[in-house]
Structure formats: C-alpha cells, structure tokens
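Dear colleague,

Thank you for sharing your sequence with our group. We've completed the structure prediction you requested, and as agreed, I am returning the results in plain text so they can be pasted directly into your records. Please verify that the sequence below matches your submission; if there's any discrepancy, let me know and we will rerun it promptly.
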Amino acid sequence: MKKILALVMAVLLICSCTALASCKKTAKYTVGICQLVQHDALDAATKGFKDALTEILGDDVAFDEQNAANSTDTCATIVSTFVTKKVDLIMANATPALQAARNATTEIPILGTSITEYGVALEIDNFNGTVGGNISGTSDLAPLDKQAQMILDLVPDAKTVGLLYCSAEPNSAYQVKVVKDYLEDKGVTCKDYKFSDANDVQLISTNAASECDAIYVPTDNTAASCAEAIWGATSELKTPIIAGESGICTGCGIATLSIDYYDLGYKTGEMAAKILKGEADISTMAIEYTPEEKLTKLYNKEICEALGFDTAALEAKGFKAIEK
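Please find the predicted structure tokens below.
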C-alpha cells in the first residue's frame, strides 16, 4: 500500500511540475546585447538599457547578454550567434560591437550605444545624423571644445598637452583631432601618445606624463579598462589628466565634462521598446545625443588632492565630486 501511495504522489508531482512549466510565460522578444569590454561606463549603459526595456515590456523581453573581453573577433562571433538565433534586436555597446553587428546582418534591428561619432564608426561620408537601414542608437559625444577648454582652465600654465588614446579606436582618434585643433588654435603644443592595446598602456602613459604638462584622455574603451594603470604610471610625475568621461576620471583623472552612461543606455532601451512594439521605424530614427544641459562637470577629489588642486575652488566653479 505504501509503495502504491508513493507512486501516486510521484506521478502527481511530475504532473504538477509539467503544468507549472506549461503555464510559465515565454518572452515575446529576445534582445542580444554585445558589450565590448567590462568597465564602468559600458556597464552603466547596459544596465540602463535593460532597465528601460524591462520597465516598458516586463516579462515580454528576455536578454542574451555577452561580453567580448575587448576583442573585435569575439564581437563578430557573438553577433553571428545572435543572427543564427534570430534575436529580435541587437544592442551593440561600443564601436567594435556596432561594426561587427553591421557586418553580420542587414535585417535584424541594431541599436548602438556608447558610440561617439557614427559617421566615423561606420565610415559614412557627410553623416547627417541618421544612419538608415537597420541601424540607429545613441551617442556618448560630449562637447569636445568645452573639454579642451577645461584643460586650459584647470592647467593654465600648460604649454604641452599629451593626447593619450588607443590607436585601434577610430572614435578616439576623432576626439583627439578635435581637441588638438582647438588647443593648437590657442597656442598650445599637442603630442599624440598612442597605445595599441592594454599591454603598452603603462609605458606610453609614463612617456606622456614625463614629457607633457597635462594629458587628455578621450572616451576610449581600452583607456577606461586600464584607467588605474594609467594613474599608476603617471601619479609620481604629478601630471594632471583631463578625461573624456566619468569612468576614466574615476580611475586616473582630475576632472571631466561627462554624460551619464546609465541615462544613455536607458534612452537606447526606450528606442528599442518602440522598435519592438512596432511604434517606430529604425531606418528613420536619428541618433540621440545627451542634451548639453544634462552634462556634468565632475572632479576626482582623491586625485585632485594628491596633485595639489584646490577642490573648494573647483566646487565654486560648478564641479561636483565623483561618487565612488
């Protein structure tokens, strides 16, 4: 009798589990996320993107989130897998991810984020603000002339400014050119210091710090993932660094004029929701930029104090301390 009862209970348990599984809701949309590398800015953009879509679509959306560990080849592999799986939309976080997605599909909608200049990233001549086809997204471009002026305001005695960036990132080269043109028009000498990957960041950073009065680091993914190494290479020489965004500034800079990457990702998520729900045509969606009034002047209290900067004076000029 006990054996029969146990058998009946087992059958009922299996039936119960099967019923629950059949009742479990299947997501209506699958979104593939390809993030180039893990660092504060890109992580915040991905989180903002997921939060926006989850708030708007709830259980109707599922994510396949992949990190390429700063490898362009891995980006290509990831997005090829997304295409094979026939995801409903691809979010490409950083330029190499966007380029890989563009090369992988002309049918699945692609939204970029943390892309500085889409015309440069996608090699579009006379870019007018709308990519067309199956691509749109958001830009992390901050006013480069204002970032350049920040160098002059905070380090007024600087005669030579080093421009430190990764040679493999075309958007970094774009930012550096704009900043260089601005500074040279003001009579400041600029020198390029290019590292090819994370392996030579420390050496190139040390060279820049020893030869320049100040350093500018643009929104650069390799620099962002190596920001603490840059500070380690430059701290003893006490060469101040102006950064292109808050994540780099947190690791090695004295100040930045930065966007909020969480907000940027959130805006991208809102765009994705409209595309998935059929409320917008991606081919006509213009690239979204952070309004200038939402940009923030930030300073790194710890590094500023280590280099002898008056933090009270910075706050009087409208700078806010970075929250770590």
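Summary note from our side: The chain has two domains: 29-140+260-290, 144-258+294-321.

Kind regards,
the structure core
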